[in-house]
Amino acid sequence: MTDWIHCNSCYNLPRSGKNFSLTNCGHIYCSDCLSRCVRDRCMICGNSCRSILLSTEMNPSLQMYFLDPLIQLKTIQQIFEFQQNQQMRLMKFWRDQVEKISSFKDCFQKMERRLMNFKCDNATLREENQILRRKLVQNDLR
Ligand SMILES: [Zn+2]
Ligand SMILES: [Zn+2]
Q: For residue 11, how far is its CA from the centre of ligand 1 (angstroms)?
């Protein structure tokens, strides 16, 4: 994908075996043409400029300009998917926690209702018990 790299001055290609440099004004020079720039002044745009050798050791923020944009897009997509996946996991965890709490609440409410019923039953039994006792006492007195 870097078959477009050429010296912006003499139009030589990197396969000529020369070193190529990138200027901070955004121009690419072969080593021959770069050496002809007088007093660090770019022959193309006339700006005073610095240059760095095109190599794999270049700063990633500069290397980026020489990479296939489609591969860059794929990488961005992978980063996006990875982060989305992580976010989904965290969201699922919290959703599960909320469900657990609400099911615990349901369970607690059921137990509370059963306890109330039990209290009612207990009161009824006490009453019946008292009536029966009274009847027994009355029978004994006769
Ligand atoms: Zn050149
Ligand atoms: Zn320039």
A: 6
Domain at 1-67, CATH from 3.20.20.70, 3.40.50.1000, 3.30.40.10, 3.90.870.10: 3.30.40.10
> How far, in Å, from the CA of 135 to the mean position of ligand 2?
117
Give me 134's structure tokens.
Answer: 């009274």
Q: What pLDDT score was predicted for residue 111? A: 95
Contacting residues for 52 by C-beta, under 8 A, at least 6 apart: 21, 22, 58, 62
- Phi first, then psi, for residue 10 (nearest 5°) are -105, 0
Q: Is the pLDDT of residue 131 over 80?
A: yes
Q: Please tell me the distance between residue 29's alpha carbon and the centre of ligand 1 in angstroms.
A: 5
Cross-strand bridge partners of residue 53: 21
| Distance of alpha carbon 60 from alpha carbon 138, whole angstroms | 104
Residue 15 Cα to ligand 2 midpoint, Å, equals 23
Average pLDDT of the segment spanning 81-100: 97
Alpha carbon of 36 to ligand 1 centroid (Å) = 9
Q: Is the torsion defined by CA of 50, 54, 57, 63 positive or negative?
A: positive
